[in-house]
Amino acid sequence: MMRVITAAIILLLLTTAGCSFLTPMQKPVEQDNRLLLWLPGASSVQVLSDWNDWGGSVAAGGIIDPVCGRMEKDDSGLWTIDLEGLPGGVYRYAFYVNGYKWIRDPVNPETAEFEGRTVSIIMVSK
């Protein structure tokens, strides 16, 4: 019964958010310079990427800086990060959830590999 209620709530949220909520974010610069992730149950989300040396882990021997790429959460559970000032180019990225779980962007079908993980890829034009 709880699964039916949860599915109904998610469906309601998706229908009220409009079609733009489901649009893949291949070029975040054209979407207010932000990356978005709806994950209301998460306690922390970071963006690890080529542009921030994968949270500093590339330069620090595998240790991820807990503040690098930190995203902000609003009351609805939508996590955002501003990418303004990011130079144009092609970048790989992933979301790092609750300090241990790597996930690719669920609304972006473009993928690549980073150290054996499937991650997302974006093209930023300037």
Detail the poorly predicted runs. 4-9, 11-30
CATH classification class: Mainly Beta
How many strands? 8
- Briefly note the CATH topology name: Immunoglobulin-like
Count helical runs: 1
Query: First CA to last CA: what distance?
Result: 49 Å
Helix content: 10-25%
Order of helices and strands: HEEEEEEEE
Strand content: 25-35%
Tell me the CATH superfamily: Immunoglobulins
SSE topology sketch:
Layout (H helix, E strand, L loop, with lengths): L1 H16 L16 E5 L6 E5 L22 E2 L4 E5 L6 E9 L3 E3 L7 E4 L2 E8 L2
Antiparallel strand pairs: 1-4, 2-5, 3-4, 5-6, 5-8, 7-8
Characterize the structure shown.
This protein has one helix at residues 2-17; strands spanning 34-38, 45-49, 72-73, 78-82, 89-97, 101-103, 111-114, 117-124. With 126 residues, it is mostly beta strands. The strands form 2 sheets. Strands 2, 5, 6, 7 and 8 form a 5-stranded antiparallel beta sheet that branches. The protein has a 3-stranded antiparallel beta sheet with strand order 1-4-3, with no helix packed on it. A hairpin with a 3-residue loop joins β5 (89-97) and β6 (101-103). The longest helix is centred in the first third of the chain and has 16 residues, at 2-17.
